[in-house]
Amino acid sequence: MTYLNKQLQIIYLKLILSYKKTLCNFNATLSTLTHSPPVPQVPSATMPVSLLWAVDVYGRVYSLSTAGQQWEQCRDAQMEFKRVTAAQQCCWGIACDNNIYLNVHASDLPVRYQEETYENQRWNPVDGFSDRLLPSDRWQLSDVTGLQHQPLDNFRLPSSSWEWEGDWYVDENFEGEPTEKEGWSYAIDFPATYTKDKKWNSCVRRRRWLRYRRYKAMDTWAKIPSQQTTLPDPFSDISCGGWEINEEPRGRLSLWAVSLQGKVWFRRGVNSHNPCGSGWISMVGEMIMINVGLNDQVLAIGSEDRAVYFRQGVTSSELSGKTWKVISVPRDGDRSHSSASAHSLQSAGCYFCGEVRAQSLVSDVESDTEKGSTDGASCIITSSSPESFVDAPTEHSDQPIETPKSRIPKVTSDSFISELVSDRGPGKTSREVRSAGPAVLEEETIPLEGEVKAPDVGVSLSPSQSVGPLDPQWSNVDLEEAQGQQAQTGAVVDTADTSSLSSVATFTLAMEDPYGVDEHPMWAWVSGGGCSVDSHTQLNWFNCSMNTSSMVQSVQSMSLSVTPAQTAAWRKQIFEQLSERTKREMDNFRHYEQAIEQSVWVKKGTMQWWRDWKPHKWIDVHFALEQFSGPEGNKDGILFIYYNFYEEKKYLHAFVNEVTILVPVLNDSKHSFAIYTPERTKQRWPIRLSAATELEMHDWLALLSVSCCDSRGIQGPPSKQAIWSITCKGDIFVSEPSLSLEAMPYPTPCDQMFWRQVGGHLRVVECNSIGIVWGIGYDHTAWVYTGGYGGGFFQGLASSTDNIYTQVDVKNVYIYENQRWNPVTGYTNRGLPTDRYMWSDASGLHECTKTNMKPPSPHWTWVSDWTIDYSVSGGTDKEGWQYAADFPASYHGHKTMKDFVRRRRWARKCKLTTTGPWQEVPPIPLSDVTILPCAAQSSVDVVPLWAISNKGDVLCRLGVTALTPAGSSWLHVGTDQPFKSISIGAASQVWAIARDGSAFYRGSVSSQSPAGDCWYHIPSPSKQKLKQVSVGRTSVYTVDENGNLWYRQGVTPSYPQGSSWEHISNNVRKVSAGPLDQVWIIADKVQGSHSLSCGTVCHRLGVQPLEPKGQSWDYGIGGGWDHITVRGNSMEPPRVHLPSLTERTPLPVRNTEINSSAVGC
Amino acid sequence: MADDKDVLRDVWFGRIPTCFTLNQDEVTEREAEPYYLLLPRVSYLPLVTDKVKKHFLKVMKAEDVEEMWLEYEGTPLKWHYPIGVLFDLHASNTVLPWSITVHFKNFPDRDLLHCTSNSVIEAHFMSSIKEADALKHKSQVVNDMQKKDHKQLWMGLQNDKFDQFWAINRKLMEYPTEEGGFRYIPFRIYQTMSDRPFIQKLFRPVSPEGNVHTLGDLLKEMYPAALPNDGEQKRYQVVIHGIEPLLETPLQWLSEHLSHPDNFLHICVIPTPTD
């Protein structure tokens, strides 16, 4: 009975835990999305109680409970507050005495801080262990390092907000185990390894004393001691947040404040056991307001330039960040910004209109002031008991407890907006003053910055300033104007107190903007709570390139779109004139000798090489690249690999102009890359090299890549005809098709194609012949090609600087948990000796545990924890298990009598951040995309683009042209079931594959009716489920789930659906049919002379108008390729083709499965 | 769309076809053949005329040889100006190849500096770079560089290695985003009809009002005569690297892309040819 109870309890506990977990996750998303305060992570039927904080115009603080129905005034608020900022567990505020106060909510969990000190003893023959230490030893009572003298009575409470829980006591436990020896642990000497037990050679011992202090100032306002002893610079804005930046327990938060003079302060050490933090750190930069989001978003507005600044480098280890970065992006419709900002100000003003209107007349102001002073007097009486204020400072001498002076209620209504207006309004005045003034302040100062310090404003702002009858009226309440105003009104409140304020100034905000139209924006307020920025992500907001230094490379600044500057006439003129100059000065004189001889240039290094002979292994080699100029001025080079073979020095070389591709092969242990030549491609055995570090590898790759491109005279972005392909690692490559690539009968052999890498990470790429290229990431994000080149590890001159953007991709890593059934215990992780690992990869051959599994390469970082994956094909039960009779077999989602084993899949998300010429096309995630392959007539002609969303919806993109390749919006095309693949042919014939494996043809698609009218169902080949389709000029090819390639027979203009499927080949992974009806595939199991490759680019030979199915395959780069698109190549090959000497005429027939089956057709 | 990077390449790889002929007055053992060479616009004459010297020395007696100097239509060519500037200033709108006369005696000490070795050119080149950086960044960038970076700039120019040069020069072209450009634009305006060698003053890329300064703004302030008056025939050409950028071209962009390797924007104002 008790046992059963216990079991039930455990189950219940588990339930709670899992519920907690989900709830916790849910909360996290909710709060990031909506910036709502986090909710206590306790499961309960009703919503957990939390508080909304508010300050009224009289400075009284109220809180509204989510469970309550009325505002509750803060009990001990004898003073007025100007501003509050709240976290779940506490509320910070700036009071009218300009000090910062903290109100920690009472909770069942006390805030405790553990103080500790170590008692150290040494053994001597006379006394045994005693506190008589050697002169060189540590203190008798010290900190853990022994460096700090820490006697017990030296510990003081940090402020009166704390109390001791009890007296000091000895920690009887050592590393979690009870010592039963008064807490002593022993060692040979200080400092050394301490053990619980005394040994013969234990000469020293120590034990730990503990004492807890508890934060007692709950539910009351405790003053945070000010550090400003010299200059009074009162706080004017405060913001807390950042509690989601790390996993620390609740209580840790980032508190930022700015002072009236613009100084920025960061509160150090606010955490779960120290709610008030340990001190202020002064930050560089002058701000007028600050806002902190839930995570690492810290935003501020500069006091001089009114620009929005983002705090860069805020991480869990460096909470205060590194530097302010100005967010300098244009606003949409920037020409009309002045009126827009005026409107926004106006509307913001309306929000405060209650007090603004009330103060808009001078007479009101005066009466208010008087009223205020009387109020103040009465308040002084009520607040005359200073003890009611919990005050912090331990150093009572220099931090006397201030009796909070009551202020004029009006004062607390000083809204930030009005403060800003005070700076804006007198802009003209101050400019005049400045231009009249003889001294130029500093070379760098820009006279328009509006940096008008409050005291100056006080002079220029007087209530007598004229108020236009039609202008909106603004009133200002400003702290520092107090004195001037006081003098004028004669309402002396507290002349000694500089921070008291009583003035109310009224002036106008003229509707016509006082600044030029091209003036940079002047911001009033910023809030970054909803804006999530990864620390390692490069934001386009900053006009900076890859480097994080404050100096930015601006050979071209990153622009969000094609800026007018790039299409400007002057730029065009320079390009044109430079090319004219080349014609004029150089083209006729190419035969002249160059003045500077190009010498041979060598770069050397050491690497490891995956040796060609067995047993294959990595061996150390010397690597050298020799570059020189060829006879016609073209650069060329040779690379050498020097190695030892049985004590004999040997080398291997390759001409740079023969290298066809450089492929990075990153994994968690090696920074390696592969070099292919046509010969190596035939062997399926590249030269594999491994550099010592990733940086070194990238240096080499970038250099070799430039060298290869130079030797082939290739530079700049890929052409519109380029062939794009993607490896299984997501790396993107392009190849420039030669004119004879599709020639008959002797096309350029596929293995001679030169591929170069383009930055970015994609799973699918599709293009057409006018240069529109779309990609889809592993996380299904849609990307459009920007026309740039480089990115990734291509730095400097190998990469364009405009058109390169940050790209992020996310994918899942999977491992399997395997279990076997036995009659005694049921399913357990005890397998048979012959079984696979109980934690393994899909094959079961490799052990993969949750702890040892690493992200695919150093570029990837984990972004989630392991979770059970329920979306496995074949289905799973409620716990994610799939059952089978034995490993490996076909798995199903429910247990039957015959099942002896089960497995379940765990997934963990990892993320890659890179750069490349790609821009995101939000917001719909895609699984497939296709673009009409043939050339459009002009650059503004709309190009049909179809896509399948992640959910299986068919979409049609509107507004896609050569100039606007991203298009404008999606048009949804209805289907009866989800789809998975789609392709549009040159004559607008749209074919698609549904999730059930059947094909569909879309009727009546034309430029007039871009979405067509209805779907025609096309049955799949018998017993096969289709998975992918590609439509060329007329040909329709599909691939099924078993790797068969099918050609649609009988397609005619009058009967576009065709009549039947004809089998072409097997072992096909993907097909791409192009605008010339050329057919390229990714094939598996291609046998090379040294090795077998999966994922190989293959080209169909013998395709002719009357023989669209072709005859045989030619094999190109691979393995490891995942995707190819040839739909950009619309170059008709020359009719008469004269084979050149370099071309091998007969194509070698290789003995492969794919070839034999292809021949059979 | 062409990339701005291509401009850097075009500027670097600009070449002037040149025909060197020996001065008639030089005493030779046999007749000297003219020598044809493609001169890099961004380099300096003594750096690229070793071959010329060797070629003509073959026909001369050793005792007749003094320091070589070059002259175009009576004007001695200052070696410390970039070659492109010399050509644009003196020989724009003439028939190519550029015909330069080679002298081995009567060195015009009043017009030319002596150039005894490449280290003199290096010193001149590096001091220009430092001067330019003083204007652009208060010398902060060039002072932060290591000795080897300085060497790389020089070697890049000397060996015509674009990538090597720009790997370092890139840093000299950076500026803080918020400033919108360099502190001052390092520029020199050359004119044919003046005794002044060139105009060089302080000029910012951005106006106090925050407007971007253009080439036209610069000329208006430095050399208003170079700008055409309304309705009047253009009297002067404003030439940089053999091209005439539009007057509305932003100065900062020009400084970043059309500066010579010495980091100065060399602007030639020459009379419009009258054909």
Automatic annotation (TrEMBL), chain A:
Compositional bias per record (Basic and acidic residues), positions renumbered to this chain: 421-434
Record-level GO cellular component terms: autophagosome membrane; cytoplasmic vesicle; lysosomal membrane
Subcellular location: Cytoplasmic vesicle, Autophagosome membrane; Lysosome membrane
Domain Peroxin/Ferlin, first and last residues per copy: 110-171, 183-216, 808-869, 880-913
Protein keywords: Autophagy, Cytoplasmic vesicle, Lipid-binding, Lysosome, Membrane, Repeat
Any one GO molecular-function label of the UniProt entry: phosphatidylinositol-3-phosphate binding
Main location: membrane
Record-linked Pfam families: Hyd_WA (PF06462), Pex24p (PF06398)
Renumbered residue ranges of the record's region Disordered: 364-414, 419-438
GO biological process: one example: autophagosome maturation
Every PH domain range: 601-711
Family membership: Belongs to the TECPR1 family.
PANTHER family per record: DYSFERLIN-RELATED, TECTONIN BETA-PROPELLER REPEAT-CONTAINING PROTEIN 1 ISOFORM X1
Protein name per Swiss-Prot or TrEMBL: Tectonin beta-propeller repeat-containing protein 1
TrEMBL record, chain B:
Keyword Membrane: yes
UniProt-recorded Gene Ontology molecular function terms: Atg8-family ligase activity
Job description of the protein: May play an important role in the apoptotic process, possibly within the modified cytoskeleton. Its expression is a relatively late event in the apoptotic process, occurring downstream of caspase activity. Plays a crucial role in IFN-gamma-induced autophagic cell death by interacting with FADD.
Membrane topology category: Peripheral membrane protein
Keyword Ubl conjugation tagged: yes
InterPro entries listed in its UniProt record: Atg5, ATG5_HBR, Atg5_HR, ATG5_UblA, Atg5_UblA_dom_sf, ATG5_UblB
Annotated protein name in UniProt: Autophagy protein 5
Domain Autophagy protein ATG5 alpha-helical bundle region per the UniProt entry, residue ranges: 120-174
Lineage start: Eukaryota, Metazoa, Chordata, Craniata, Vertebrata
Localization annotation: Cytoplasm; Preautophagosomal structure membrane
Domain Autophagy protein ATG5 UblA: 11-104
Keywords: Acetylation, Apoptosis, Autophagy, Cytoplasm, Immunity, Isopeptide bond, Membrane, Ubl conjugation
Domain Autophagy protein ATG5 UblB positions: 184-269
GO cellular component assignments: Atg12-Atg5-Atg16 complex; autophagosome; mitochondria-associated endoplasmic reticulum membrane contact site; phagophore; phagophore assembly site membrane
Pfam families assigned to the protein according to its UniProt record, in alphabetical order: ATG5_HBR, ATG5_UblA, ATG5_UblB
Domain of life: Eukaryota
UniProt subunit comment: Conjugated with ATG12. Forms a conjugate with ATG12. Part of the minor complex composed of 4 sets of ATG12-ATG5 and ATG16L1 (400 kDa); this complex interacts with ATG3 leading to disruption of ATG7 interaction and promotion of ATG8-like proteins lipidation. Forms an 800-kDa complex composed of ATG12-ATG5 and ATG16L2. The ATG12-ATG5 conjugate interacts with RAB33A; this interaction is bridged by ATG16L1 and promotes ATG12-ATG5-ATG16L1 complex recruitment to phagophores. Interacts with TECPR1; the interaction is direct and does not take place when ATG16L1 is associated with the ATG5-ATG12 conjugate.
Protein family per UniProt: Belongs to the ATG5 family.
GO term, biological process aspect, one: cellular response to nitrogen starvation
